[in-house]
């Protein structure tokens, strides 16, 4: 399969959770983490996010000060998006919506200008690479989407902000690969590439896929 090079970025609590009961991880990470998020977005061809994370964080998926904005890619089961969401009212890269449980693009009522795709994540990645020239793609969650990428074994780089001063708990609280579910087909192995201490209760870590 031809596909983009894919990186992922998430913030996790000391016990490995990616959001609290209010589903707002942005409330418990520092300004330094938000600055890192912007740096990781710079220069990529496309940003990728699940619908739940898009709505919880009110994301616009843009890069301030960058002339060429990345394409904005959203994954949703049914393609139901709020037309009043800030994403659709902020200039940026073209918007692509993947509706994974819809038979035909005509069944999706998307805001004007949104390119609708249907089918599986694997075919979507290939389409973005072959038809839209996407060589690098950066995913910002949520856990279910990262889980799907891990199942396909297409994560090349993983960035985590570890918020060591926070424990969230909860058996069903989402982790970087979603809530309790089946094991991956096989373990995915990464090597430590970068590590830094933010001196604010956070650590910033980057792992790269072994052999890549």
Question: TL;DR?
Answer:
The protein is an alpha/beta fold and 212 residues long. The protein is 19% helix and 26% strand.
Describe the structure in your own words:
With 212 residues, this protein is an alpha/beta fold. Helices cover 19% and strands 26% of the residues. The protein has helices at 31-41, 51-57, 121-132, 143-152, and strands spanning 5-13, 46-50, 71-76, 95-99, 115-118, 136-139, 157-163, 190-197, 202-209. Strands 5-4-3-2-6-1-7-9-8 form a nine-stranded mixed sheet. A hairpin with a 4-residue loop joins β8 and β9. The longest helix is centred in the middle third of the chain and has 12 residues, at 121-132. The protein is globular, with a radius of gyration of 17 Å.
Any chance you could write out the topology, listing elements then pairs?
Layout: E1 5-13, H1 31-41, E2 46-50, H2 51-57, E3 71-76, E4 95-99, E5 115-118, H3 121-132, E6 136-139, H4 143-152, E7 157-163, E8 190-197, E9 202-209
Parallel strand pairs: 1-6, 1-7, 2-3, 2-6, 3-4, 4-5
Antiparallel strand pairs: 7-9, 8-9
Helix content: 10-25%
Quickly count the helices.
4
What is the count of β-strands?
9
Average of per-residue pLDDT values: 92
Pick out its properties.
19% helix; 212 residues; nine-stranded mixed sheet; globular; alpha/beta
């Amino acid at each position: 399969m031809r596909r983009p090079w894919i990186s992922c970025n998430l913030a996790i609590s000391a016990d490995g959770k990616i959001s609290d009961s209010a589903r707002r991880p942005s409330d418990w990470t520092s300004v330094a983490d938000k600055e890192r998020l912007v740096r990781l977005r710079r220069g990529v061809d496309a940003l990728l996010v699940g619908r739940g994370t898009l709505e919880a964080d009110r994301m616009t998926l843009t890069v301030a000060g960058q002339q060429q904005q990345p394409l904005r890619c959203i994954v949703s089961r049914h393609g139901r998006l709020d037309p009043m969401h800030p994403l659709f009212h902020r200039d940026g890269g073209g918007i692509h919506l993947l509706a994974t449980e819809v038979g035909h693009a005509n069944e999706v009522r998307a805001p004007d200008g949104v390119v609708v795709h249907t089918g599986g994540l694997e075919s979507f990645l290939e389409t973005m690479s072959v038809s839209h020239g996407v060589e690098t793609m950066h995913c910002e969650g949520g856990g279910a989407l990262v889980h799907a990428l891990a199942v396909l074994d297409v994560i090349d780089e993983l960035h985590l902000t570890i918020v060591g001063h926070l424990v969230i708990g909860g058996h069903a609280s989402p982790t970087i690969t979603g809530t309790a579910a089946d094991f991956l087909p096989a373990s995915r192995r990464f090597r430590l590439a970068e590590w830094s201490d933010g001196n604010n209760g956070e650590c910033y870590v980057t792992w790269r896929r072994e052999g890549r």
